[in-house]
């Protein structure tokens, strides 16, 4: 390890558990120790940071305290959705008490929003003029500043495996349509990417508005599909894709319109989408983000260290680390605020919406196949 540095870092998990969080904590703790920093871990998110050491929520960790965390799912530290504004004074008190100069927050939209609140509270609380970094970790993949959040790969794999098993259950029962509800809040990433992976007939999401005419067209498409060798259908629905067209509504509509042609079943995937053990991508990605985040924080701490204390009040002292196209980039939370829909907890622009054309092409191909316009396409391809 490097010589002992004067800096102390605190690491915490915020929001819902996501696969890969533990890999990120492990690599961040160990690279922090290698840099010579004092490293604290905080249990129960911002709520734990407000409680302090008295209840064992803030503790210093060493190299072996995070051994074996790489392949563990969920969050070993424990997470809470509590935002800092509910307990700001206690958080400031503990930041001062433990002399924390760097805060690494691993979590979902609450982690991003929480760090933004801490940055905005720097005026009245000078103690919050420290280096902060967010590692996006959520199955919803709805944090601005990154194309992929930790845990979303594991979640897509878990949802895909579940849909494959659901489809397989219809191999003995012909003419059946499954309606599968996925998680993700208002973000339709899980529904869309899982739909592409399993060859779904449709995936309804909030970002791509749909009407009763779209539902009717899909019922007609499924009715035509039942005339071919493939006598089963799969429709994915994001949990908050529409206020009125609920999973129950879709079930009633499809059951009624498909009466005598196909029957219908509902499956709500629920928390099994959190996926258990992280996939190789999430383990690798979490490890890399943990290392890069701490190295960035160390560099920033050196820049703002003056006369024995850290004072960081510039916009680029609090960032979200993320993969943007091919580059791991740091985006200031104050800049990301301008491109965030806080009401629906979404980035205003999402790259994966372009992939939805692939879902539409499934339907076009099948319809053309039935009408005999695509004789060169084999049944097996479809």
UniProtKB/TrEMBL annotation:
InterPro entries: ATP_PFK, Phosphofructokinase_CS, Phosphofructokinase_dom, PKF_sf
Listed GO biological process terms: canonical glycolysis; fructose 1,6-bisphosphate metabolic process; fructose 6-phosphate metabolic process
Reactions mediated catalytically: beta-D-fructose 6-phosphate + ATP = beta-D-fructose 1,6-bisphosphate + ADP + H(+)
GO molecular function: 6-phosphofructokinase activity; AMP binding; ATP binding; fructose-6-phosphate binding; identical protein binding; metal ion binding; monosaccharide binding
Keyword Translocase: no
Domain of life: Eukaryota
Pathway: Carbohydrate degradation; glycolysis; D-glyceraldehyde 3-phosphate and glycerone phosphate from D-glucose: step 3/4
Tagged with keyword Transferase: yes
GO cellular component: 6-phosphofructokinase complex; membrane
Keywords: Acetylation, Cytoplasm, Glycolysis, Glycoprotein, Kinase, Magnesium, Metal-binding, Phosphoprotein, Transferase
Cofactor(s) the record lists: Mg(2+)
Residue span(s) of domain Phosphofructokinase: 9-296
Protein name: 6-phosphofructokinase, liver type
UniProt organism field: Cathartes aura (Turkey vulture)
